[in-house]
Amino acid sequence: MTAADLLPLGTATLGEAWPAARLVAAPIRPLAPGMALAGTALPLRCRPGDNLALHLAIAAARPGDVLVVDYGGSLQSGPFGEIMALACRMRGIAGLVIDGAVRDSAQIAGLGFPVFARGLNIRGTSKSDRGEIGVPVVLGGVTIAPGDVILADADAILVLDAGDLDPALAAAQARAAREAAMMTRLGQGETTLSILGLDGGTE
Q1: Which residues form the signal peptide (predicted)?
Q2: Which of 26, 45, 122, 137 has the fewest CB atoms within 10 Å, counting from its CB?
Q3: pLDDT tens digits for 49-61?
Q4: Rg of the Cα trace of the chain?
């Protein structure tokens, strides 16, 4: 099993099925409708106004990694754009989550590279501070360590301990199967009250 197996299940199903999943509370949203990502966290700290750490992380990342960037919540510059998104695609990086802004939103969406960010800013950055790569970071009150599992979609960003992946995936798949069965029964004319046993045994 890999983190990518979580992608079709979604954060709502995973969050209900596995309460130990940690919810990132910061207002970090998908850059475009339909964006979703799942992968293994490569966290880094990047000094606001400088993006050298991002360039270094892209070069160091492995296929399936998600770059998780502590940019201090800054919206004063956009350290990530179209060129870096293409570089990520070419290296098999699964996506970017940044507590900060990005640029080239339409171009990134056109590449199909999933980006979750706090906002947008076209202002460029310097390239002199190496930051810190592969260290735990805190986003939205959640500590994210190297190797943690990240699942993000339009509803939420969730973080799992790496060791929880298999049982969490099994629990989410079981919940998805139950929900599919409920939807079949709804299509046959039953009510949610009767399916959930909330009608006291009467229709």
Answers
A1: none
A2: 122
A3: 999 999 999 999 9
A4: 19
Average pLDDT of span 32-60: 98
- pTM metric for this prediction: 0.93
Closest by CA to 153, choosing from 11, 3, 2, 9, is 11
**What is the DSSP annotation of 24-83?**
P-S--EESSTT--EEEEEEEEE--TTB-HHHHHHHHH--TTEEEEEE-TT--S-----HH
| CB distance 28 to 142 below 8 Å | no
Confidence of residue 159 (pLDDT cuts 50, 70, 90): very high
At 188 the three-state DSSP class reads: coil
Domains delineated in the chain: 3-162 (3.50.30.40)
CA torsion 165-28-95-1 (nearest 10°) is 10
Taking the CA atoms of residue 92, residue 159, residue 20 and residue 163 in that order, the dihedral angle to the nearest 10 degrees is 40
